[in-house]
Design goal:
By secondary structure, this protein is α/β, with parallel strands linked by helices. 59% of the residues lie in helices and 13% in strands. Helix 2 crosses helix 3 and helix 4 runs parallel beside helix 5. Bound molecules: adenosine monophosphate.
């Protein structure tokens, strides 16, 4: 199985679709947000550093993030393919991912971009706040995360386009439709 990068704004469904893809294709899964939240929960040094950024809706510095990503990747079983969820979020991270994978004889595989209107994203995130109580799912922090996404992460879509691996899926209101389109693209790429 080839690697997959799942890309999109906060609330676009990266975690949800990753879970579906992992269940169907039995891949490895790295959610950098989950890795950081678990470090915070365990009270590690890294967790303490990460908390300040996350609570403020900002990105963790690239150097630190790239290091965490490589360690997490190396701890996963080889040959099953990995879905990268929430990474890369900057051009520097994307370049580092490409190099890190090349050094291991792997590549990025395909990128899946989820496009969802901002009002829908906001409604979903406020709803998630009620259900899961994530500290960064409040209106003020969500707005900051949207700004960070627009300024630092969204330009990466073009970077993936140039790499020739961008596959865009636009939300039209039905999860099942999204899923069958995504699965079809993965099968075509396999
Ligand atoms: P997520 O669960 O993917 O929405 O991530 C939650 C928060 O974790 C983000 O708002 C960032 O503060 C931090 N984070 C997750 N992934 C990254 C990354 N690749 N680079 C920098 N910060 C990240």
């Amino acid at each position: 199985m080839k690697n997959i990068i799942i890309f999109g704004a906060p609330g676009s469904g990266k975690g949800t679709y990753s879970d579906e893809i992992v269940a169907k294709y039995n891949m490895g899964h790295i959610s950098t947000g989950d890795v950081l939240r678990s470090e915070i929960k365990n009270g590690t040094e890294l967790g303490k550093i990460a908390k300040g950024y996350i609570d403020n809706g900002q990105l963790i510095p690239d150097e630190l993030m790239i290091d965490i990503l490589a360690k997490t990747y190396d701890a996963l079983p080889k040959g099953q393919g990995v879905i990268f969820d929430g990474f890369p979020r900057t051009i520097a991270q994307a370049e580092a991912l490409k190099t890190m994978l090349a050094e291991r004889g792997d590549d990025m595989g395909m990128m899946i971009e989820l496009v969802v209107d901002e009002e829908v994203l906001m409604a979903r995130l406020l709803n998630r706040a009620k259900e899961q109580g994530r500290a960064d799912d409040n209106e003020e922090t969500i707005k900051k995360r949207f700004d960070v996404y627009r300024n630092q992460t969204a330009p990466l879509a073009e970077w993936f386009e140039k790499e020739g691996i961008r596959n865009t899926f636009t939300w039209t209101g039905a999860k099942e439709t999204m899923l069958s389109n995504i699965f079809a693209a993965i099968d075509k790429n396999a």
